[in-house]
Structures are given as C-alpha cells and as structure tokens.
Amino acid sequence: MTLRAVVRGVGHYLPERVVPNSEFEKTLDTSDEWIRSRSGIERRHFAADNENTSDLATHAARAALASAGLKGSDIDAVILATSTADLTFPSAATMVQSEIGMTTGFAFDVQAVCAGFVYALSNANALILSGQAKRVLVIGAETFSRIMDWTDRSTCVLFGDGAGALVLEAEEGAGTSDDRGILATDLHSDGRYRDLLYVDGGISTGTNGFLRMQGPEVFRHAVEKLAQTAHHALESVGLGADDVDWVVPHQANIRIIKSTAKKLGVPLSRVILTVQDHGNTSAASIPLALSVGVERGQIRQGDLLVTEAIGGGLAWGSVVLRW
Ligand code: UT7
User: Fold this and answer.
1) What's the pLDDT tens digit per position in 92-101?
2) Range 2-173: architecture per CATH
C-alpha cells in the first residue's frame, strides 16, 4: 500500500467586475483583435478596491471545503500560492486560516509566481506522504491588477485576478498509476533568467512596483520547458501522452498552450481552456481551470490529469494526478 494525496474538493472565486478587451482600447494603442489573436484572452476579472488576495482565497477555500463536505477545523495545513499577498507579512495563508475558522495546524504562502500552484501541490503532497498532515487546503490566489503598469500595453492587457482551491486528503492506494491522487511532481527553477519577468519594486525600493516582462523571451522558454517537464513527470510513473485525459495548463497564452499540447502529443480537445475568460491569473490559473473543468463536466473522477506552469524566476514544473 502507498499513501496518496487525493483530491476531496475543489472550488473557485472570481471577482464580480469583468473587463473586456475593448476597455483597453479607450486608454491604450491596442485592440481587441490584437489581444485575442496574440494571447487568446477575451476578458478578465479585476478585484474591487476593497478586495485583497486573502479575500479571493477565502471565497475559493470555502467553496472547496463545501465541495469536500468539510469545515476549516478539519484541515491540518493551508498552503497558499501567491505573489500578491495582502501584506509583506503575515502570510495571506494565515489570514485565510483564521477566516475559515481553523485554529490548529499551520498555514504558509508559497511564492513561485505563475508556477506557484504546481509548487504548492508538490509541497502539499510531501506533507501528506511524510505524515505531517492528513488534509491540506491548497489555494492559488492573485490580484495581479495591483501590480500592472496601466501605460504598458505589452503586459497590462494580459493579466487578471481570481482564486481556486483544492482539498487534498491522505488515502491508501495500491501503489500503481491507477491510484487516485498525486502520482508525480517535477519542479525546476533557474535564477539566471530572473530578469525576464519580475516586479520592479518591493522591500529594496519601498514601493510595490510593476510587473515587467520580456514577453517573447518568456514565450520561447515556456514552449520548450513546459512540454519537457510534463513529459518527464508522466514518464517517471510509466505514463505517456495517450494515458492523459486532460492537460490543465497554466493559462498565460493560447499560443503557448497549443504549442505545448502539440509537443506533448495531446490534442487540444483534451486541454482545459479558460484563458479566454480569465486572462493570466498567475498562481490562480491552474486551480481555477481545475474547478471550471469540473463545473463544465469535463474533468471526472478517475481521469488522468497533467498540470504544467512556468513563470517568474524562471520557475516551472508539472504535476500528474488522477482526479
Ligand atoms: O505567466 C507567466 C508567463 N508569461 C507568459 O507566458 C507570457 C509569454 N509571452 C507572451 O504571451 C507573448 O510574448 C505576448 C502576448 C506577451 C506578446 O506576443 P508576441 O507575439 O510575442 O508579440 P511581441 O511582444 O513580439 O510584439 C509584437 C508587436 C510589437 O510591435 P512591433 O515592435 O512589432 O512594432 C509590440 O509593440 O506587438 C506590439 N504590441 C502590441 N500591439 C497592440 C505589444 N503589446 C501590444 C498590445 N496591443 N497590447
């Protein structure tokens, strides 16, 4: 028998305000046509002025707990993937912990930018497999609208706000790839590329800063590294592209998603797509896509999923799990 981290519940939250591409035409030299054709994005959600990342995360956490039939007090650990925590400290995870009525266990943030949720899943898996936690709430939540330079058309049209969450629970499996739960994880980073995507503010500047990105360079790395990590994770447990029911990619750009699927050998009909409705929500994009995929009736119990993401750092990775 092998211990597995199995998905018990999933949920998400999107702020009420929906911003179509046409909004940007009013203030920038851009067009709905450019944004759609270069990124696949049609609209995104932006948080209200009084909504912070921990608020979005709390809504998603409550939805995931409800879908699992659990309360906050049933959870041993909260891991929140975000690069836009409300404050420098304490972690947004501890804010969520108190909001869901969890007074025991522990909570912490993971900061790996767009790869954050994959890193958080891998950490949650390790906590469960090592016996340090039985039930882990894993959240991805972001308010990237707070770090946009609204005069930079090459970045501000691409990002959005949102949150998604999973409840993972320890369960005995047979030790084969037919088991439900996380089957493989594969994480990487390479700080030599830290200038390709970063925020030009923080403790060292005394400002929040704005997101800066060399888009085409990040694009090039993404196409190469995402298929590689997904292949590697699948291979490590004796699986291949034909075994995959759904690729659940980080939703940054439809062209990256299509190229990666092609390299992996998985048709686009087996890829969960939400980029058109959410834009790039960084660490929230994969749990949002998982939750929406379940809501749409695409992802079902027993399906084999591979998630993959890349972002600032560069940091990237993938997780193979059976839903
Ligand atoms: O989530 C973290 C990881 N991030 C990503 O994966 C993002 C990766 N990169 C990308 O998705 C793409 O590189 C972008 C969508 C950011 C840009 O697409 P691209 O096809 O690489 O375009 P480009 O940056 O090469 O720009 C092409 C042209 C440029 O004009 P010139 O120099 O050819 O005259 C840009 O100035 O498009 C121009 N441009 C725009 N035009 C209208 C850039 N942004 C805009 C815009 N509207 N919003």
Assistant:
1) 999 999 999 9
2) 3-Layer(aba) Sandwich (3.40)
